[in-house]
Every structure is written in C-alpha cells, then in structure tokens.
Amino acid sequence: MDLDHLPKVRSTRDQVESALADLMQELRPGDQLPTEPELARMLGVSRPTLRDALHTFAERGLLIRRQGVGTFVASRLPVLDAGMEVLESIDRMAQRLGLETEMALLSVTEREATEPERLGLGVAAQLPVLVVDRVISIEEEPVADLRDVVPLATLEQDDLGEVFRGSVLDVFLERGTPVLTHSRTEILAGIANGEQAERLHIAAGTPVLRLVAQLFSYDERVVDYSVSTFVPGHFRFHVMRQVRT
To answer: Is pLDDT of 50 > 50?
Structure first.
C-alpha cells in the first residue's frame, strides 16, 4: 500500500486522528491497514501515540483490530437505532433498514442452570435450562454475540424449529406462548475476552456494550434470561424520559 503521499504529522492526538481519518477515506471496508511500525513511520508519529489513536477508532466502531492478524477498516453498515422502551429482535431492527441478518456459531445445550443463571431466572433450586448461543451478522459482519437461558419447561430444542433465525423472543411471539409482558434490562459497558473477541472478529480487550435482560410472562415469571454483547459502532440505544414536575 503506497502511503508516501500522506503528509507527516506531529504527535498531537487530534492530528494523528485526522491523518487516520484521511487514510480511511481512501480505503474500502475490509481493507487492512499497514502494520503499526510501518504506519507510524509513514505518518511520522510514535507508536504509542498511533496505538492510542487506533484504539479510539476501534472504540468508535470505525476500525476492527483482530489480534494476531491486523487492523481493518470497519464496514459502513447503517447504525441500528432502537428505543429501549420497545423490545424487539436484531432481525426486526435490521429489516426496518432493509438489511438481512445471518446466524453463525449456533450452539443449543440442555444443562442445569448455573448460580448466576438461577439468580437471573429468579429461582433458587436446581433448574434444567436450554442455553442458546449464537453470533448474529449483517452483510457477513458479526455485530452481536447472544446467549439466552430459558427453563426447559418453557422452551425445548425442538421448539426452535428448522428456520430459527436467531431470536428466542421472536419464537415466543410467533407461537403465542408464553404471554409476554415486559423486560427488565441492565445496560453495561464491558470488555471482550479472548473467546468472545474471536467470535466477533474483534481484538481482545475491545470495549463492548452488554444488555443483561430478564423477560417476564403475564404471571411475573422470568421466562428468559439473556446476555447480549454488541460490537461498538453498529448499535445506538436511546431512552425517552419524562420530566418530573
């Protein structure tokens, strides 16, 4: 890649970020950036300064850093914007933008709930559950790693069917049972560990957004405990709040 035409910049962070932004305008989504030593030399900056700028761009979802592989320009997929007041699947969010979702790394397991899972499901005793793990991609780019933990009395593996698209919520809604009322969702900032980073094609240690949710039925039972991890830059969640007078 010939970057000799790029102007050399001083080591101020704003200037480095500006030079990186100019470079990315010349590249396409999926293109790989030069190695850190090469890029630092071309831009005339120190590697620590460059590394800070690359980290910032990765946090914004503009770059994808794959450990042991390199740094790539992220896709320019539309941001999925959703209000937290309405619960809906990623598939339905994407459909509104005319995008198709794909599911990968599907794992469906029957086992006993762990202690944190029992706490999330609001039960104290041992409980057999169905654990559904999968990665959701849009235009072949992973955007979310999802885990649902559901009591076997509520959902069995056969209930997912042959056309499961990745949303346990949509399965419940399509079959009409259990009758759902609301979800309590906790919004957390997290860090992708090695295994999850590999699943999402991002660097280990990348900041991620996590939603930990309890889905309630009409009789106030928790029928689904889920942990959803989102790649930065692809989702924007907002909440409408009333002013207390």
So the answer is: yes
Residues of each domain in the chain carrying CATH 3.40.1410.10: 80-238
Mean pLDDT of all residues in 28-52:
85
- pLDDT, residue 219, reads 93
Across the range 47-52, mean pLDDT stands at: 87
Whether the pLDDT of residue 144 is over 70: the answer is yes
pLDDT score recorded for residue 59: 75
- Looking at CATH, the fold of the domain delimited by 13-73 is given as Arc Repressor Mutant, subunit A (1.10.10)
The predicted structure's pLDDT at residue 9: 45
For 80-238, CATH gives 3.40.1410.10
| The 3-state secondary structure of the chain, one letter per residue | CCCCCCCCCCCCHHHHHHHHHHHHHCCCCCCECCCHHHHHHHHCCCHHHHHHHHHHHHHCCCEEEECCCEEEECCCCCCEEEECCCCCCHHHHHHHCCCCEEEEEEEEEEEECCHHHHHHHCCCCCCEEEEEEEEEEECCEEEEEEEEEEECCCCCHHHHCCCCCCCHHHHHHHHCCCCEEEEEEEEEEEECCHHHHHHHCCCCCCEEEEEEEEEEECCCCEEEEEEEEECCCCEEEECCCCCCC
Rama region for 17: left / alpha / beta (φ>0; ψ in -120 to 50; rest): alpha
Q: Which residues contact residue 158 at a Cβ distance below 8 angstroms, ignoring those fewer than 6 apart? A: none
pTM of the full predicted structure? Answer: 0.71
Q: What's the N-to-C CA distance of the chain in angstroms?
A: 60
